[in-house]
Amino acid sequence: MMVKTSFMLRGVEFKNRVLAASGTFGYGDECVDFMNVNGLGGLIMKSLSMKPRDGNPPTRIVETAGGMLNSIGLANIGVQRFIVEKLPFLRTLQTAIIANIAASTIEEYCDVLDTLEGEEGIDGYEINVSCPNVKEGGLSFGTSCELTEEITRRLRARTEKPLIIKLTPNVTHISDFARAVEGAGADAVSVINTLIGMAVDVKTRKPILSTVTGGLSGPAIKPVALAKVYETARAVQIPVIGIGGIMNTTDALEFLMVGATAVQVGTVNFIDPAAGTKIAAGIEQYCADHQIDDTGALVGSLDARTGVSVLDTWI
Amino acid sequence: MIQALCPVRGVQHLTENIFVLSFTSAEISASIRAGQFINVKVDEGFEPLLRRPFSVYRVEGEDVEIIFNVVGKGTAALSRKRSGDWIDVLGPLGVPFTLNGEEFQTAILVGGGLGVAPLPISTGELLRNGKQVMTVLGARSASQLVVSHLRNLHIATDDGSKGYHGNVVGLVKELMSSRSIPRAKIFACGPTAMLRAIGVFAIAEDIPCEVSLEGPMGCGFGICQGCPVELVGEGRKYALMCKDGPTFDVRKIRI
Question: Which residue, A18, A286, B97, B144, has most beta carbons within 10 Å?
Fold first, then answer.
């Protein structure tokens, strides 16, 4: 049977519900040797800041049980070089291109978006609010509901393209942040960014990462991410894009069922760059096998009648 | 570059915890160059999570060999592979050694421990390029030495159980001061401290030198940005070990 796989977000069509997560797929050109990039619903670019960023000193990554910690430091080529060097290739792709913006001031978020706004080939924006706010001594924007809301409001006023806010799980109630950005005009939220984690080398008694702590990703965080998506999807009307440890079709189906409109695959790209396209095909096959003619029917299809949610009760 | 499931030909236990795994790949055997590496997913599923990078040790027909020390669960799983098993291989990756050109006539291949890995394939390529090859190999003790497929070999052991008593860089210095080797170039692979020492020596003596670095990597092809190598001079602060290396001109990096 024919299965409809696409979905719309503020007038932009995504051909399927599986996107490559920011920072795990470069600018799309590194993976073409290994896979068909056009088999993905969209590519979320590596974070772009106004100026190029060198990133953090080594060690930047370490494998942990069922996952990995990273502290890349948003190494990127800067928005101007992106436009000149990367965008021409991206325009040739038949998949949605979402620019991800990182910044250290609210003004910089606006400047990067303004710089991209005139360029053909950008279908929308995802905003990385898990960046240190230089005006507040480096505390992440994303842990302040007010600042996250303000960034959203300021950026909303500057673009008619889809605006997605990528939320950090390192807060008490992620749903409060989702409600705030929904009220400020966001079109969707990406849930979740990495969880803060740490690893120690007991031989040297030093932290393994040069920045001491880093972001945990991979299968280890999937149960946490699922619960956060479930919490968020019940709190807002705008679409939730689920992220966190998705390695295969079953993982992605779980996210759709708990309420994600789409998913992003991240860490798995490092191991199997073609994983996202396999998962997109797997979701379509699942629907065909279950006589479902639209992958959208999976979204929020969780049968929670028999369970009592931890959101409503004590653990 | 390809990603492919490749059949394992066999695993040979060489000495102590050192193994050579051989697999068949027409594409990789035909295109791999000395100093490049492959990134291996050791098992189905995602335990361990990340691929494991290995320099290619030798190519024999369509068979490709990697050599490794069992240090963790990834290498332990590889050591248990049997003929008929499959491994998922991504490669060839990275920038090869510069083994041709007029810059040098004699290659001094220097390996410390399992830094011997890219030396046999390099030897073959150098001989085909009409170069002279001298090899200097160091290990903690004689039982850790892997000496096959090398030319004009000199050995150093930390405990003095074979050859020169001391580290491999000490032996390189002695060899190069006791004989005249016109138009030499050093190619080195081994622990970071060894590469740092060989770099200091090469720069002081004005000998061209390329090193092959080893370190934590996420993806192996540039998308995770997880393997920075500090560059010397103005401009870009970091290169990526996987994509811009693992081989580098020792003058261009800070080890």
Answer: A18
